[in-house]
Write a structure and sequence with these properties.
Monomer. It holds the Pfam family mTERF. GO terms for molecular function: nucleic acid binding. One of its GO terms (biological process) is termination of mitochondrial transcription. It comes from Tichodroma muraria. By secondary structure, the protein is mostly helical. It has a domain of 109 residues. 63% of the residues lie in helices and 0% in strands. α10 crosses α11 and α10 packs parallel to α12. The protein starts with 12 loop residues before the first helix and ends in a 14-residue tail after the last helix. The model has no long low-confidence stretch (mean pLDDT 90).
């Protein structure tokens, strides 16, 4: 075990010599994690050797050690078993060394090897592609530190609910894989949270079919909800749109954001829209505009009015969607505006 106390100790001469011989910038290490240089035991040559065996050149090895100095405190055995583990999902050592260079911290966290291995196998069984699993290993490494039972529990709760609500086995599989690929951090939640949120929706008279629809649309948001926020947000929407419970349900199904945004957020967005001269009736017609921040709404309205498009009189569909969706809509309106009306009998001007 090593100590991070840097006061009373001296830097390990042998470690320094070995690092120098690899052209590692030691000032970087002093700045970042000086305590690494004070440890009695370090495996500089061995770790460098393993990295070189995988195809890393000298500058890559130096770069990895500079970015993650504690790499040299791991035993060769630990690093070799980590290498074997990551090879379960990497195409080859070339890809592996590239990943280690980009994400050294993820690779050199070796305390959870049993859990990591069990989780990798579980994700493969679920049908996740290896390139997605490597993305998890580098970008969301903490989901592998969970015991596999915990991750299984969250996934099984989702599967069970999806099927109980009348979803098909085939759709469920696709949905789970999509959900995980988009947001692996859902695994850090508890299965009780999902259960409570779904029960809240059922208590509020959403049919199984409708809850299933929401579950599909909400994706990872189902975890971020809680019944108190949902209750308040629904009440707020009901008062603003002056609608019956049945109408409110239809609005929520159209725009699940009405469930997961808190009242202050909804209030601010609504105010932003009203300031632009948009009416409550228009928003009720196209509630999805509430998914956009006030800043985005302003920018889009400005671009559309420059084309002579009056948002106050039209519907709000043209404001909606992702950046890409909006660009397509904008392009269509623009080309309509620019297209000259062709007069078949007008003389053609031909340059001599």
């Amino acid at each position: 075990s090593y100590t991070t106390d840097t006061k009373s100790r001296e830097e390990n001469k042998k470690t320094l010599e070995n690092l120098y011989s690899l052209s590692v910038d030691i000032t970087k290490i002093r700045r970042l994690k000086e305590w690494v240089l004070l440890q009695d035991v370090a495996y500089v040559k061995e770790i460098a050797g393993i990295l070189q065996e995988m195809g890393a050149d000298e500058s890559t090895v130096a770069n990895i050690i500079e970015r993650c100095p504690e790499a040299i405190l791991h035993t060769p055995a630990e690093i070799n078993s980590q290498r074997a583990l990551w090879q379960l999902v990497c195409q080859n050592e070339k890809q592996l060394i590239k990943l280690i260079e980009q994400f050294p911290e993820s690779f050199f966290t070796t305390e959870y090897q049993q859990n990591q291995k069990a989780n990798i196998l579980f994700f493969q069984e679920l049908g996740l592609k290896n390139n997605i699993i490597t993305r998890f290993l580098t970008g969301a490494p903490n989901i592998f530190y969970n015991p596999v039972e915990k991750n299984k529990n969250v996934i099984e709760t989702l599967q069970r609910n999806y099927l109980n609500l009348g979803g098909s086995e085939a759709n469920m599989k696709i949905w789970i894989l999509k959900l995980l690929s988009q947001n692996p951090f859902i695994l850090l939640n508890t299965s009780t949270a999902i259960q409570e949120n779904l029960e809240f929706l059922q208590k509020n008279d959403f049919t199984d079919q409708e809850v299933l629809q929401l579950l599909s649309k909400l994706k990872g948001f189902i975890f971020q909800l809680n019944s108190t926020t949902m209750q308040k947000s629904m009440l707020f929407s009901k008062n603003i749109f002056k609608c019956s419970d049945q109408e409110l349900k239809q609005l929520v199904l159209k725009c699940p954001a009405l469930l997961y945004y808190s009242v202050p957020v909804l209030e601010e967005r609504l105010e932003g829209l009203l300031k632009e001269g948009i009416s409550i009736a228009q928003i009720r017609e196209t509630p999805m505009v509430l998914e956009l921040t006030t800043q985005i709404v302003r920018y889009r309205i400005k671009k559309l009015s420059a084309l002579g498009y009056d948002i106050k009189s039209g519907n709000l569909e043209s404001l909606n969607g992702t950046k890409k969706d909006f660009e397509v809509t904008y392009g269509k309106i623009q080309s309509k505006k620019e297209r000259p009306i062709f007069n078949p009998v007008a003389p053609l001007h031909i340059e001599d």
